[in-house]
Write a structure and sequence with these properties.
Structural class of chain A: alpha/beta
Radius of gyration of chain A: 17 Å
Shape of chain A: globular
Mean pLDDT of chain B: 86
Number of domains of chain B: 2
Number of helices of chain B: 14
Number of strands of chain A: 10
Largest sheet of chain B: 6 strands, mixed, barrel
Number of strands of chain B: 13
Largest interface: A-B, 30 and 24 residues
Strand content of chain B: 15-25%
Helix content of chain A: 25-40%
Structural class of chain B: alpha+beta
Number of helices of chain A: 7
Low-confidence stretches of chain B: 251-265
Distance between the termini of chain B: 30 Å
Distance between the termini of chain A: 16 Å
Order of helices and strands of chain A: EEEHEEHEHHHEHEHEE
Strand order of the largest sheet of chain B: 2-3-8-5-7-6
Mean pLDDT of chain A: 89
Low-confidence stretches of chain A: 229-234
Largest sheet of chain A: 6 strands, mixed
Oligomer: heterodimer
Shape of chain B: elongated
Chain lengths: 234, 424
């Protein structure tokens, strides 16, 4: 089952009087429950592509379908609702809310986005805390835990609302190699346990090898990764 | 909503110093305004009380045209007995009226057998006068304050006159007056007491018994120059004034018209509140205006403070706004989050300011601060504030706090998540 499908996808930014193409007509599709990486150097268009898949940005032209929804046509409110219902996000700099504890950070989307009842919330949060091995730190604030722990909390937060898709933009860029590896392993394990599709971007060659499917971007264009037998649809 | 408030509260705590500074500013503003309103209100009420309780009463009824000529105390504009009876009947039906006093006012020559000067005299029924202007006995500075304030053959004279004419309590003086027909009559009086003067109209008048006044003026009928009325509750002034004006216009129906009724007139009668008769009314209005101005200043302070804080809060948390927006928080919830922060700032500052202000008002009442006003000395300041005033000011500040947060909150809710997430 195809979860994401892009056809002739183009994104061009306007910088003053100049058009700056970020994504230059890419076609790809991603199946449900995949563990996919977009790789490429800085400025290759990875983040732009993830932003469009995550309904944070609109394509300039082309068609982008996520969960059979043409997300390019969603307005601000509909896009927010779509994200809240179907997509989780993991950021490079963790982006946890500093005034909330680990527990409350995971709880945040369940309150502010989906309004889950308290008992159901608690059950879900405890399950996720256990999955990411953060039960002991549940009542600590983000500034009281390490970078790796923060990213584990961020993964748990991204999975809190049971999304079908988690997008992670350079989730390991701020972590040392071992920690980065453990985060990728955690994400893969969560995919296995929950069946959630993970799509992440990275420029770290050691990490990209953990992906099951790799799309290589270069100057806004998509190339297949030569080292991966599972590379598809590019 | 409770969760939004909880997160808003934590955000305020997170920027503790700034929150404290802004709350302090709002608190100080609230304290200043409530104290000012209480003290100015107390000062105003006290001054009004001095006029109404010592001389004027709350409302006065005269024959039409009398007030316009009041400087000459025209005897030909006295109310005739039938007219007085009608007014008394009307007053009897008004529950809000506590007492009233019929007065005969006249201008006379005052002689101590050596020198002569002019004096304005009120002929009054002592019992009714004291019931209507209860501060009258308190104005006695020489002579006994005990017993009846006035008997027939006695006179209360103002302090300045007593000093100028070198007259003491117990001395005999002569009043000489010209009646309506132009004939002159004289009558001796014993000085019963000397009165402290009061600022404003009739504040330096003497007092004699109303029957003595009629004898002196050789009145055949029980004429009255004015009827002073005291209300049980001064706050009912406007209502009673309107009711009395309407009633007296009704009595006069034949000659009364709408315009006259609007001025409290009719049936050849005029109805005036103390404010119409005393120049202090304009000072009272100035106090009200000053209070309004101070309130506007407070609102401005709150508006600028909250706007400043909320604009900074949005600017400093752009990445955070990007994050919560990216994970699907609806724009309306982002809006409500920042509005809640402004609301809590406003409500917190207001609550604290109100508590401090009420405590200070209580302390001022305990300390009994005195001041002088005109020739009145040692007046005790008794600041009070109505619950309605506190509520209005508090609600006003909270609403302004919300309004001030609206623009920054709106900006936050409309922020593009990609731009926000990329903000450094």
């Amino acid at each position: 089952m195809q979860l994401i499908r892009a056809e002739k996808l183009v994104k061009t930014y306007r910088a003053g009087e100049v058009d700056v193409p970020a994504v230059k007509g890419v076609d790809f599709s991603i199946d449900a429950k995949s563990f996919v990486a977009f790789v490429g150097p800085s400025g290759s268009g990875k983040s732009t592509l993830l932003n469009m898949i995550g309904c944070l940005d609109h394509p300039t032209s082309g068609r982008l379908s996520v969960l059979d929804t043409d997300v390019g046509g969603l307005n601000r409110r509909a896009a927010a609702e779509f994200r809240g219902l179907h997509i989780g996000f993991v950021f490079q700099e963790f982006n946890l809310i500093p005034v909330l504890t680990v527990y409350e950070n995971i709880e945040y989307p369940l309150i502010m986005v989906q309004d889950w009842p308290a008992q159901k919330r608690r059950k879900q949060i405890m399950r996720l805390l256990e999955s990411v091995d953060m039960l002991e730190q549940a009542h600590k604030r983000p500034d009281q835990i390490s970078g790796g722990q923060k990213q584990r909390v961020a993964v748990a937060r991204a999975l809190a609302t049971d999304p079908q898709l988690v997008l992670a933009d350079e989730p390991t860029a701020n972590l040392d190699h071992d920690t980065a590896y453990r985060i990728i392993e955690l994400m893969k394990r969560m995919r296995d346990e929950l069946g959630t599709t993970f799509v992440f971007s990275t420029h770290d060659p050691k990490i990209m090898g953990e992906a099951e499917i790799i799309f290589t971007l270069d100057d806004g264009r998509l190339h297949s990764s030569p080292g991966k037998a599972e590379v598809v649809h590019a | 909503m409770l969760n939004v408030l909880k997160i808003a509260l934590r955000n305020l705590a997170r920027f503790g110093r700034r929150t404290l500074l802004t709350s302090t500013l709002i608190t100080l503003g609230i304290v200043s305004v409530l104290l000012f309103v209480a003290i100015a209100g107390s000062f105003k009420a006290m001054m009004i009380g001095q006029f109404t309780d010592a001389v004027l009463g709350h409302i006065e009824v005269h024959r039409k045209g009398y007030v316009a000529s009041i400087d000459t105390l025209p005897l030909n504009l006295n109310m005739q007995p039938a007219m007085v009876a009608r007014v008394e009947q009307a007053l009897a039906k008004l529950e809000a009226v506590e007492a009233y006093s019929t007065r005969v006012k006249l201008g006379a020559m005052f002689s101590n057998f050596t020198e002569t000067t002019s004096i304005r005299v009120n002929g009054v029924d002592p019992g009714k006068e004291v019931a209507t202007t209860p501060l009258l006995p308190g104005r006695i500075v020489e002579g006994s304050k005990q017993g009846p304030v006035l008997k027939r053959g006695e006179i209360l004279i103002p302090l300045l006159l007593a000093r100028g004419m070198k007259v003491k309590v117990g001395d005999t003086i002569v009043l000489v007056a010209t009646n309506r027909d132009g004939s002159v009559n004289g009558k001796t009086f014993t000085v019963r007491a000397v009165l402290e003067s009061v600022s404003g109209p009739s504040g330096r008048d003497g007092y004699i018994h109303i029957e003595d006044a009629r004898d002196l003026l050789r009145m055949k009928d029980a004429e009255v120059s004015e009827i002073a009325i005291r209300l049980k509750d001064p706050a009912q002034l406007d209502r009673v004034y309107a009711q009395l004006s309407k009633t007296l216009t009704g009595f006069a129906g034949k000659s009364g018209n709408a315009a006259m009724a609007g001025k409290g007139g009719g049936a050849g009668l005029e109805v005036h509140t103390w404010a119409d008769l005393s120049p202090f009314a304009s000072i009272a209005r100035m106090i009200d205006l000053l209070t309004l101005f101070i309130k506007i200043m407070l609102v401005s302070i709150v508006l600028v403070s909250i706007m400043n804080v909320m604009v900074m809060a949005v600017y400093e948390r752009i990445r955070e706004i990007g994050t919560i927006s990216a994970i699907g928080t609806p724009p309306r919830k982002i809006l409500s989050l920042f509005l809640a922060e402004g609301l809590l700032l406003g409500a917190g500052g207001t609550a604290l300011g109100t508590v401090i202000a009420l405590a200070l008002i209580y302390a001022l009442n305990v300390w009994k601060i005195t001041f002088d006003f005109g020739q009145q000395h040692g007046l005790v300041l008794t600041p009070t504030i109505r619950a309605a005033d506190v509520a209005i000011i508090a609600v006003m500040v909270v609403i302004v706090a919300l309004l001030a947060s609206l623009q920054p909150a709106w900006k936050a809710s409309r922020m593009d998540p990609v731009t926000a997430l990329g903000h450094v």
